[in-house]
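Recall from the previous lesson that a structure prediction takes nothing but the amino acid sequence as input. Here we apply that procedure to 25S rRNA adenine-N(1) methyltransferase from Laetiporus sulphureus 93-53. The sequence below is the only information supplied.
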Amino acid sequence: MPKARKHKRKTPITTVEASARPGTRGSSNPIATRALIRRFHVLIKRRAQLEKAIEAGDGLENARKGLADVDDEIEEVGGLSAYQRMSTIGQGSDRGGGSEKVLIEWLKELGLASASLKKHTTLRLLEVGALKPDNYASCTAWIQNTPIDLRSNHPAIVEQDFLLMSEAEHREKWDIISLSLVLNFVPDAKDRGRMLRLAHTMLRPDGLLFIALPLPCILNSRYLTPEHFAGLLQIIGLSMIKSRWKEGGKMAYWLLRKTPGKSHTTDPAAYESKKVLRPGKRNNFVILL
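The prediction returns the following tokens.
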């Protein structure tokens, strides 16, 4: 009788070398870091789909089992804390720093830093999805930053779901809102659109919205192109004043200004459901209103 095979437990992809642990100089392997982040995004999206199926009463037994399996895998790969750790590693100085450097550079180019310093005032910034509390520590003379995240990993970061913030309480309260690697983390396409609308409401007149996304979200999506994204932003009432990405790069950045009225040149219905804009083997990232 053949011997039973022994199943060796796989090492979780969140296992990090000593060089990746807090207090050490190096970062973990970039490939492992990106693999974890991508897998976590897939799991969160799948979890949202299964929760909707359960709410609708569709295939309850299978949906509940699937949800339990997804939760087990999320736990196995380290949960949200592992995602935060890997994302923080990705912001290390040996990887070119975080996206806050781009925003600070653009704000200085617009003369906002010098104007605030001259008037002895500060710009109120809401940093959504903050992984570190001190991203804007070098700008405290002209930026008053409020960092928030779904799960705070530091006492100085407010634990808050942006989508649950009071629209009335925060209406026209903020000079700047940063959504850096946030929209792509939201599992539901409609919630991504709702997040942009909420940001528009919360910005002061002429306020600025900073967005950072992985470049494939706009250059390799079936449903979203740079032109389509620009049209969607205009519908919401956001005009593009700066953008940056390069072919073959990893990230795309936008700086948008809140405009007095929403654009009426484009039919909003074009952004309310998925429409294939580029066929072929591509990702499914989309933002819907």
